[in-house]
Design a protein that fits this description.
sucrose:proton symporter activity; single chain; Growth Hormone, Chain: A; Solute carrier family 45 member 2; MFS_trans_sf; mainly alpha; transport; 72% helix; 22 helices
Length: 567
């Protein structure tokens, strides 16, 4: 009750629009909406005041961020068990890399289209939430097949050879489906936050996202590190994997539901029967959108009156929804634009993006490449380099037992990483006024690069576990700073349009978030294709941390030279 009352009190009051059927005289404009000397500013406030996102309470933002806890919880479970599950069903080692490549390749090809499509989604439930719901269900199906595929196939198929083949197919499909949906869902979640929050609340929301991401990862690794096989739940549900699936499915279902009902989302289109005819000048104010960066071509709207009124609102906010709900003629251009969406047009929009967006994507690619180089192979590094174990030794040998012990300690190191990520996401708020977004971006890359360098030079157990905290600094940086920069860039463009008084429209934030997420998938492809070859050529897993350190320090240089500072 407190949450709702706080949001409603902050909501701006809409202006009074003419009743249908009444004659509208120009003398009404100075008193209701349009003054003779402040035509532009008062018109903007009148028309857009009702759709400006209100300030959100802390409780609302935390409820909105709960989905990141559930997503990272499931991610941690997958990271801890994907190797033993795949090997237990008999997957050949030659096909193991294929599992990590299919999902990012699909994501890199389809992510921009999904992001742009969500910018034009006309569901009455909102633009982002339908996509989040569908992808959330796909995540649940994927983790179900991943952790239960072997048991289900064993119960259905009796032939031993067919059972092994089908188990491999079902488990691989579950892993690919889960990765695909979990990677895709990040873009709509961020765009949902941007749509329903004011500029200051976007920053707060991203910090809560990073905080709960770290906590979710820590809880996921802790659940995976426990021995559930001999517990009461293990005996009741059948095996350790079923217990872990129970916790994962329950956590994801609850937090996804909380997220979807956390903050109301303004739909892009409203009931056409509820739309009242408006005077031509207001129609011109609402409907005049020229093609800007990332916007697709559409039919021009005829201007009525002596002057055109610019629309300074970004396409990512619900002001465009208000414009499209006025008349059917205002809706039609965007319907045509949606029909013309193709992968080629979206790639062209990304390639032709302004330099500061392109540089941000490149730095994001460098950061994620460095981060994944370390994270995907860290437990193997602990087992082979830090503990001097041998994964290829006999399973009853001391060398293999030592390797397994190193892998277990590596999981605890990843838990430390998740906890430090949550802590640093809170510390970022205090550092931001002193060093700014670009400074935080540089610090995250630099600390990670130096930490991985020290781990490679001094592979000591205690030192390595302590330095796992720098992984959390990098994780929190990658999950927050680039999206904060996007919000700042969009705010600058909005202010610039206001100062110029020109007609223009901005790129939808769904496309921007999708472009950043594409860099994550591209980094996975690069790591999946290149790092295994480097390890084979070097003959040692130590090349993993060296590669991570090198890419991170390159990212530091790139941030210093090319990322534009935001005051």
């Amino acid at each position: 009750m407190t949450l709702l009352s706080e949001d409603q009190s902050a909501r701006p009051q809409p202006c009074r629009l003419p009743e249908p059927g009444k004659h509208i005289s120009t003398s009404l404009y100075p008193t209701d909406c349009i003054g003779s000397k402040e035509y532009y500013m008062e018109s903007e406030e009148c028309v857009f005041g009702a759709v400006e996102p209100p300030r959100r309470s802390r409780g609302r933002l935390i409820l909105h961020s709960m989905v990141m806890f559930g997503r990272e919880f499931c991610y941690a479970v997958e990271a801890a068990f994907v190797t033993p599950v795949l090997l237990s069903v008999g997957l050949p080692r030659s096909l193991y890399s294929l599992v990590w490549l299919i999902s990012p390749i699909l994501g890199f090809l389809l992510q921009p289209i999904i992001g742009s499509a969500s910018d034009y989604c006309r569901s009455p439930w909102g633009r982002r939430r339908p996509y989040i719901l569908v992808l959330g269900i796909l995540m649940l199906i994927g983790i179900t097949l991943f952790l239960n595929g072997d048991a289900v196939v064993s119960a259905i198929v009796s032939n031993r050879s067919l059972k092994s083949t089908w188990a491999i197919v079902v488990v691989m499909f579950g892993v690919v489906l889960f990765d695909f949906a979990a990677d895709f869902i990040d873009g709509p979640i961020k765009a949902y936050l941007f749509d329903v929050c004011s500029h200051r609340d976007k920053e707060r929301g991203l910090h809560y996202h990073a905080l709960l991401t770290g906590l979710g990862g820590a809880c996921g690794y802790l659940v995976g590190a426990m021995d559930w096989g001999h517990s009461i739940l293990g005996q009741l549900l059948g095996s350790e994997y079923q217990v872990i699936y129970f916790f994962s499915a329950l956590t994801w279902s609850i937090f996804l539901t909380v997220h979807l009902f956390s903050i109301p989302e303004q739909p892009l289109s409203k009931d056409p029967h509820a739309s009242d005819p408006l005077p031509p000048s207001v129609l011109r104010l609402l409907g005049s959108h020229s093609n800007g960066y990332g916007a697709l071509a559409k039919e021009p709207v005829s201007n009525v009156g002596p002057a055109s009124i610019p629309d300074p609102r970004p396409r990512s906010f619900s002001a465009l929804g208000e414009a499209n709900s006025v008349t059917s003629s205002a809706k039609q251009p965007n319907k045509e634009a949606q029909k013309r969406m193709t992968f080629r047009s979206m790639m062209k929009a990304i390639i032709n993006m302004p330099n500061h967006y392109r540089y941000l994507c490149v730095s994001h690619l460098l950061g994620w490449t460095a981060f994944l180089c370390n994270m995907l192979f860290f437990t193997d590094f602990m087992g082979q380099i830090v503990y001097n174990g041998n994964p290829y030794a006999e399973h009853n040998s001391t060398a293999y037992a030592t390797y397994e012990r190193g892998v277990e300690v590596g999981c605890w190191g990843l838990c430390i990483n998740a906890a430090s990520s949550a802590l640093y996401s809170y510390v970022q708020r205090f550092l931001l006024p002193y060093i700014g977004l670009k400074g935080l971006y540089f610090v995250g890359y630099f600390v990670f690069g130096m930490g991985t360098s020290l781990i490679g030079l001094f592979p000591n157990i205690i030192a390595t576990l302590i330095l796992c905290t720098v992984f959390g600094v990098m994780s929190s940086t990658l999950y927050t700073i680039p999206y904060n920069l996007i919000a700042e860039y969009q705010l600058e463009e909005e202010e610039l349009l206001k100062l110029r008084g020109s007609i223009g429209s901005q790129r939808g934030c769904g496309v921007d978030c999708a472009a950043l997420t594409c860099m994550v998938q591209l980094a996975q492809i690069i790591v999946g294709l290149g790092l295994g070859t480097l390890v084979y050529m070097a003959g040692s897993v130590i090349v993993v941390v060296i590669s991570a350190s090198t890419m991170s320090l390159f990212g530091c240089i790139f941030i210093t030279l090319f990322i534009r500072n935001v005051d």
